[in-house]
């Protein structure tokens, strides 16, 4: 790492020390200031920073910081969802009070555009969002502006989160009829996963590599062949805020593309499709027959000024295996 990169990592580690000493991660002046500083430090694109190659000490700080960010994000969403549900009229008319609402608008548009490109115009009828939380903004944005006839099933393990989220959409005559909430551990959901055309996996479902891969393996086992799995990842210093999802983690899926935004949308987006079960003669291949090699050398990096993002495109499987 260069001197500037080392200074950036030191700044992040110093902020971690301050944040870890906070008595509470619930929204307050001190919490808001420190997390705003953390985000503004991590958000400038810097592909030269590879968190996976840093020292054990920095790796440990990163793991702890992701957990802390997840907890703080949960408190923030719970706080604003509670405020929103107190409005007498439709709470969805006031979503702009949430400080990161514009980010979700941009992320929703990005993910819809990627879906459109990779589904060749097919409009999903049933979408699942895993880890929707008390403020399910991705589902709300997609349902309100992009997928206006689609049914959304939101899964979260926290009953209080689902109660708030359900109350949040209950006053909207359209969204309330197309949005459902399920309080369940997704690892206990099996057959019903086959009914979804698209499954979104929230960034903080599986906060470390092992947990994330375990969830992905479960989805691969139970999703319908051809269904799309959309995940959120992180790139460069943004990986101090969210876990990284790599192509090698998506065994049994065809990775279609990975998008690394360079604006204030923090999360990268990974689009993949569950591979079909193939048969050879009288032998039907199961999941073990679907595992693709981690051919990361075939990733093509493209800088797109028009979309202000970095894109990694994955070619046809024949090209990957050539």
Description:
The protein is an alpha/beta fold and 322 residues long. 38% of the residues lie in helices and 17% in strands. The protein is built from 9 helices and 11 strands. A 9-stranded mixed sheet has the order 3-2-1-4-5-7-6-11-10. α3 (56-84) packs across α6. The longest helix is centred in the N-terminal third of the chain and has 29 residues, at 56-84. The chain is globular, with a radius of gyration of 20 Å. The chain starts with a helix and ends with a helix.
Total strand count, please?
11
**Major beta sheet summary:** 9 strands, mixed
What radius of gyration results from the CA coordinates?
Answer: 20 Å
Q: What is the end-to-end distance?
A: 34 Å
Strand percentage, roughly? 15-25%
Structural class: alpha/beta
Helical percentage: 25-40%
Structure keywords:
single chain; 322 residues; alpha/beta; 9-stranded mixed beta sheet; two-stranded antiparallel ribbon; 11 strands; 38% helix; disordered C terminus
Task: Give a topology summary.
Blueprint: H1 3-20, H2 29-42, H3 56-84, H4 101-118, E1 126-130, H5 137-146, E2 151-156, H6 159-169, H7 175-178, E3 179-183, E4 198-201, H8 209-222, E5 228-233, E6 253-261, E7 268-274, E8 279-280, E9 283-284, E10 300-304, E11 309-313, H9 317-321
Parallel strand pairs: 1-2, 1-4, 2-3, 4-5
Antiparallel strand pairs: 5-7, 6-7, 6-11, 8-9, 10-11
Helix pairs in contact: 1-2, 1-3, 3-6, 4-5
InterPro entries: Nicotian_synth, SAM-dependent_MTases_sf
Protein name: Nicotianamine synthase
EC number: 2.5.1.43
